[in-house]
């Protein structure tokens, strides 16, 4: 038993060391910002009239096979997910919501990967696949950073101790 617990502690430290490097932290934050803007704008395009923003008419035409309530629901969830990618960790209020937002948007991208081939073929499926991989990167990176060393220094989620 002692060997198994020491292996878990060693492997946990090795994987978290990568996420403590300044370059990885910067990459993670940039990806959070880019994905947040991507989903905020995409969600806004789904909620506004087709002639109000650039790209809204094209998106309305592409999403015409779907029911309007589903498109509106998707727009709202994308906007909330985009805010969830940035605000909780930036404001240090419930930072666990950031990886959860990434997971929620990843589930939405899986739905897009299922929907797109039925109407448009397999080539456009690359967009939600790449976006999903980036969301997985952000979700995992934020989760590891929360587990090992919280950014405010008050709580270490791994051992449950206060610092």
TrEMBL record:
GO terms for cellular component: membrane. Pfam families: DoxX_2. It is found in: Membrane. The chain crosses the membrane at residues 30-49, 69-88, 100-120, 126-148. Keywords: Membrane, Transmembrane, Transmembrane helix. It is a multi-pass membrane protein. It comes from the Bacteria. This is DoxX family protein. The lineage of its organism: Bacteria, Bacillati, Chloroflexota, Ktedonobacteria, Ktedonobacterales.
């Amino acid at each position: 038993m002692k060997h198994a617990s020491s292996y878990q502690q060693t492997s946990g430290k090795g994987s978290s060391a990568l996420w403590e490097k300044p370059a990885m932290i910067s990459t993670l934050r940039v990806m959070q910002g880019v994905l947040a803007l991507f989903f905020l704008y995409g969600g806004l395009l789904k909620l506004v009239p087709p002639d109000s923003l650039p790209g809204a008419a094209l998106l309305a035409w592409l999403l015409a096979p779907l029911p309007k309530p589903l498109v509106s629901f998707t727009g709202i969830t994308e906007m909330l997910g985009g805010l969830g990618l940035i605000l909780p960790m930036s404001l240090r209020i419930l930072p666990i919501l950031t990886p959860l937002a990434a997971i929620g948007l990843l589930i939405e991208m899986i739905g897009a990967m299922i929907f797109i081939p039925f109407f448009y073929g397999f080539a456009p499926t690359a967009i939600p696949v790449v976006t999903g991989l980036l969301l997985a990167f952000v979700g995992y990176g934020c989760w590891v950073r929360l587990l090992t060393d919280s950014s405010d220094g008050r709580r270490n989620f791994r051992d449950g101790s206060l610092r």
